[in-house]
Amino acid sequence: MPLLTALQRLSQRQRRALATALTAVVVIVVVAANQPSESGAAHPQVRPAAARGSGVTGVTTPRPTALPVLKLAHTHVNFSDDTAAHPGAPRVDAVAGILVDAATGSILWSRAPHTPLPPASTTKVLSTLVALENFDPDQVVTITADALHQAGDETVMGLKPGNRLTVHELLDGMLTVSANDAATALAVDTVGMDGFVNAMNQQVAALGLRDSHFTTPVGLDDPNQRASAYDLAAIAATDVAEFPLFRQMVAQTDVVLAASPQHPEFDLSNLNRLLRLYPAADGIKPGYTGDAGACLIGMAERDGHRLISVVLNAPALYSDTRGLLDWGFVQEGLPSLLPTPSPAPAKR
Fold this sequence. Notes:
The protein is an alpha+beta fold. About 35% of the residues lie in helices and about 15% in strands. Helix 3 runs antiparallel to helix 4 and helix 4 runs antiparallel to helix 5.
């Protein structure tokens, strides 16, 4: 055996060197045998990159859907408290409220103005602000079944799947008959509910407001949906200052959307009774839910003075609002428009 004889003649040092060399050769051969074939197929025990971290071979981990980026009004609203200079306000039964001179930003009267409360359909003043900031009023929206899941006791204008209405027409429905189907369609059938509600809360922050948070564009009761009288007055004042169309819509007592090939006729009678109860009134929006009680954002203008009021959880919302607005104009040096109470009969 020449090979064995040769190995025996090697020194111990030479034998170790030869063993190391043979081991290296074996490693090279094994590694080469486990490389991918020329076809490019991966080693069978290596998962595709898309499946790593998912726990299931071949399953892609879904990424969160990015919310649409909507435009915001960046008018910073900061009302100044001038209530000390205006004592003697009329009786108001509301849990919270505020009266603001929209031209000067002065607060003439307030009660718990920064307390977050359920806002009911006064929410729609913010939904309207987001819509007008982002959509052309003539943009056509096709109504889908996804937007029409309202309960039987909700206020609606009667939309059907396949109806096609402009943003302007949907806002008419929202701001007159407080149409929840219109408000939902403006969100779901444009950018999606999540994107729209996200923009609502971003808009609140962009105005410098801190008391409120919204979960829907409608205003139904939700423990996480709250707004203060101060914030609602600020949002309404922004709508009024930025969009003449808003002022026009909230002042309407009756609206007829004529039938067309895109939708049937809609007859809309404004639920805001303030427009009929106070001569100077020209808006804005009432609301009611079980948690919120009766709520109202009111507005009136006389001789260049524009006042905005908010009452939340107000059992006598129209008496409260009419009295506050009229008293506010008296503070501006204008005569009262309300009848003088008759004196009590003399006792005999």
